[in-house]
Design a protein that fits this description.
This is Transposase. By secondary structure, this protein is mainly alpha-helical. It has a domain at 1-17 and 41-69. Helix content is 68%, strand content 0%. The chain is built from 3 helices and no strands. Helix 1 (2-26) packs across helix 2 (42-54). It starts with a helix and ends with a helix.
């Protein structure tokens, strides 16, 4: 299971890098930007959400308490 989650994270991380580069080229430049970065990367968030939807849990609180921690 651990090897599987690392593989999924690796694939999502590569996708996020390509997507963010594509998104940066497509967006109109703006002076309004956030100064603070998030604590989790987009790839980490997407991996957690994907595994949440694959889990038998019906709500995120139980998934967080019993699967992530």
């Amino acid at each position: 299971m651990k090897k599987c989650i690392i593989t999924v994270y690796y694939l999502i991380d590569n996708f996020c890098k390509i997507y963010q580069e594509w998104e940066r080229k497509r967006l109109i430049p703006s002076s309004n930007q956030r100064n603070r970065d998030g604590k989790l990367s987009l790839a980490e968030l997407l991996t957690i959400v994907i595994y949440f939807y694959l889990s038998p849990c019906k709500d995120f609180k139980n998934y967080y308490l019993y699967y992530l921690c």
